[in-house]
Amino acid sequence: RQGPLDPHSVLGVRPGASPREIRAAFLARCKEVHPDRDPSDPSRHGRFL
């Protein structure tokens, strides 16, 4: 099992990012890995959670 992930690196934002930047990065990341984008890829569900 993998250790804890740095949320800034997961979202691709700098540590001093504003709440607006963090929210935008979060929403973009959700759209990228959402299981509905490719239902035939079972790994998407795990990445979305």
Alpha carbon gap, first and last residue: 15 Å
Total number of strands? 0
Global Rg: 12 Å
Strand content: under 5%
Query: How many structural units, i.e. domains?
Result: 1
Order of helices and strands: HHH
- Count every helix, treating DSSP H or I runs of 4 or more residues as helices: 3
Counting helices, strands and paired strands, the structural category is mainly alpha
Low-confidence runs (pLDDT<50, min 5 residues)? Answer: none
Report the sheet with the most strands, covering strand number, pairing sense and barrel closure: none
Shape call:
flat
Mean pLDDT: 80
Q: Considering DSSP H and I runs of 4 or more, what fraction of the residues is helical?
A: 40-55%
Task: Note the topology.
Layout: H1 7-11, H2 19-33, H3 43-48
Explain what the structure shows.
With 49 residues, the protein is an all-alpha fold. The protein has helices at residues 7-11, 19-33, 43-48. The radius of gyration is 12 Å and the shape is flat. The model has no long low-confidence stretch (mean pLDDT 80). It comes from Dicaeum eximium. InterPro entries: DnaJ_C4, DnaJ_domain, J_dom_sf. This is DNJC4 protein. Residues 6-49 form the J domain.
Main attributes of the structure:
single chain, 49 residues, mainly alpha, 3 helices, 0% strand, flat, DnaJ_C4
Structure summary:
This is DNJC4 protein. The chain is mainly α and 49 residues long.
